[in-house]
Q: What sequence folds into this?
């Protein structure tokens, strides 16, 4: 299929429709509004439905209802709106329903700004809502990968009956790049025989629920969830690495920030520095094992993020104290430049190549 | 021997957790009967709230979805919009619908969602132990209004049926109670009519049922029925506020 030039936010919508998602419940917020606008325009053409909810809270609860009824469904928002969705996300995770949630992050805390940021890493990977649950968190670095991850994200959600979050930033939502729509790897997806469709007098009622008043039952439910999360950790880690076995310094960065890091690495290589890159594509499950492959004589790991140091915690967990860990971040909608990263890498080198 | 009365197939065969004298049981039965008699039980998807009727998903004999507090109309919207051929209803209390879930119920009505809502108003938060609700009467005591509800402090109780009747998308709005056999019959009739509004695709419908809470009101079941009639009905008048106009 020929490549087409698409803006990130619109590409998300096109990919979702390609994945068989016909239902979208959303609420406007910058910098992701092109996505609900695209869905409002395109879903009726494929016999689907777009509905603008009265709030992000209502939108995620509509997703909760629709996912329970057994259809592929999506919602999207940006940071403050994602905060409002946390209640529903926790219920969806608790009731084990599949759906895809898109967060095109902007600066925070509070109302923050509308410029790109990566400040919701903790919220996305550590829960956000109440209870011991996990989202599968996918962090695309370009529009093609965004499209691929949306399409695969629906399959992952259905396979594990778990919400999947696409964690992008304002930059990827707004940038235009050529994309093609490709089939994901084939997965055996289970029948949705648990969905609320009406019994039609042929089976016992299906109940979508996250309430377990008996502590023994709730503990069992949590054990089941944890077993599922373990399977996801074993099977779904995605990471891209560059030259880490040979590097003197390794940069860890995800999403659009990793592209800036890549530019910095190219320039550093021209000057004779050996710098590698670990780019997690799944932020949960996190590619901890990848850090084992780093050159044992590496001088340090530099985490670069558009926040004040959130993935940094996972990098420290992964490195297990074997290498010094450094951090460089810009926040508030400020984007790190290649030169800033180059300076930081040279500092870690300590003047010697 | 002819069977003159039997338990509806609309309810499951399990004991409920409701307190003695609480009228939730009667209201459950009426909803179950209406689902069965209208022939929609096997096609129904119910949405349970958070509050006293949080376990309603165990009692209605159809597919059920447990919502977060106040969000039942949004969950029902999601279900109905992707399964328009199913019968979708919510069952909510006054803390759920008239406090934390006002945005959801108002906007479900305003969009004209083709869902039906049973709104059980007992003027108090029952499940959490008798705290003040937006529907608590002025002067009525609650654990968070130990001196009685003070209008100057927290306003007068909210009348949801009157409010919702002003919204175009709400096609059927009626307030009933179940304090006597005559009232129970009228309540059943209202629930049947409300459900028909959805079946006929006309829009949103709601039946508000004034209900008792002997446990948290601090009265016997019989006193509670009298207290409801003497205190709640004067403030929350019974009757139909809206029904679809007959096609000429």
A:
């Amino acid at each position: 299929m020929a490549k087409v030039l698409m803006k990130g936010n619109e590409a998300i919508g096109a990919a979702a429709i390609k994945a068989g998602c016909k239902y979208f419940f959303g609420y406007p917020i910058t910098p992701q509004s092109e996505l609900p606008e695209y869905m409002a325009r395109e879903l009726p053409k494929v016999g689907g439905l777009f509905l603008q909810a009265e709030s992000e809270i209502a939108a995620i609860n509509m997703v909760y209802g629709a996912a329970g009824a057994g259809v592929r469904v999506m919602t999207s928002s940006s940071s403050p709106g994602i905060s409002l969705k946390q209640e529903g996300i926790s219920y969806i995770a608790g009731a084990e329903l599949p759906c895809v949630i898109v967060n095109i992050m902007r600066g925070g805390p509070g109302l923050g700004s509308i410029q790109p940021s990566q400040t919701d890493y903790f919220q996305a990977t550590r829960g956000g809502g109440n209870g011991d649950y996990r989202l599968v968190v996918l962090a695309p670095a370009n529009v093609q990968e965004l499209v691929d991850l949306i399409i695969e994200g629906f399959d992952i959600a259905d396979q594990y009956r778990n919400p999947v979050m696409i964690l992008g930033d304002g930059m990827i939502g707004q940038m235009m790049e050529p994309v093609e729509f490709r089939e994901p790897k084939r997965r055996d997806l289970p029948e949705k025989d648990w969905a609320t469709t009406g019994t039609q007098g042929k089976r016992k009622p299906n109940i979508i629920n996250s309430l377990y008043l008996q502590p023994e039952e709730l503990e069992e439910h949590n054990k089941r969830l944890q077993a599922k999360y373990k399977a996801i950790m074993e099977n779904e880690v995605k990471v891209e690495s560059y030259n880490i076995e040979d590097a003197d310094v390794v940069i860890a960065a995800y999403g659009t920030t990793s592209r800036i890091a890549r530019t910095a690495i190219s320039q550093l290589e021209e000057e004779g520095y050996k710098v590698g890159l670990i780019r997690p594509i799944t932020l949960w499950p996190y590619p901890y094992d990848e850090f084992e492959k780093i050159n044992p004589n590496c001088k340090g790991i530099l985490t670069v993020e558009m926040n004040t140091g959130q993935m940094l915690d996972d990098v420290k967990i992964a490195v297990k104290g074997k290498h010094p860990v450094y951090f460089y971040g810009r926040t508030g909608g400020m984007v790190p430049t290649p030169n800033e990263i180059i300076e930081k890498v040279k500092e870690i080198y300590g003047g010697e190549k | 021997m002819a069977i003159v009365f039997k338990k509806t197939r609309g309810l499951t065969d399990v004991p409920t957790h409701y307190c003695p004298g609480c009228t939730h049981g009667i209201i459950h039965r009426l909803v179950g009967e209406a689902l069965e008699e209208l022939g929609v039980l096997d096609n129904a998807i119910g949405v349970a709230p958070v509050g006293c009727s949080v376990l309603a998903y165990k009692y209605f004999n159809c597919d059920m979805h447990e919502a977060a507090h106040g969000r039942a109309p949004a969950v029902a919207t999601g279900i109905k919009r992707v399964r328009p051929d199913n019968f979708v209803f919510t069952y909510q209390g006054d803390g759920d619908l008239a406090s934390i879930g006002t945005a959801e119920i108002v906007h479900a009505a305003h969009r004209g969602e083709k869902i039906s809502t049973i709104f059980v108003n007992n003027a108090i938060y029952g499940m959490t132990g008798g705290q003040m609700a937006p529907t608590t009467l002025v002067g009525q005591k609650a654990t968070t209004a130990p001196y009685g509800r003070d209008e100057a402090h927290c306003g007068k109780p909210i009348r949801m049926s009157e409010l919702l009747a002003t919204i175009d998308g709400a096609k059927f709005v009626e307030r009933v109670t179940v304090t006597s056999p005559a009232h129970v019959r009228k309540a059943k009739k209202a629930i049947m009519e409300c459900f028909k509004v959805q079946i006929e695709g006309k829009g949103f419908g709601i039946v508000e049922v004034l209900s008792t809470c002997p446990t948290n009101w601090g009265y016997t079941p019989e006193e509670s029925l009298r207290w409801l009639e003497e205190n709640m009905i004067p403030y929350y008048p019974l009757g139909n506020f809206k029904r679809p106009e007959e096609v000429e």
Observations:
- The first helix of chain A runs from residue 8 to 18.
- Chain A touches chain B through 38 residues (CB under 8 Å).
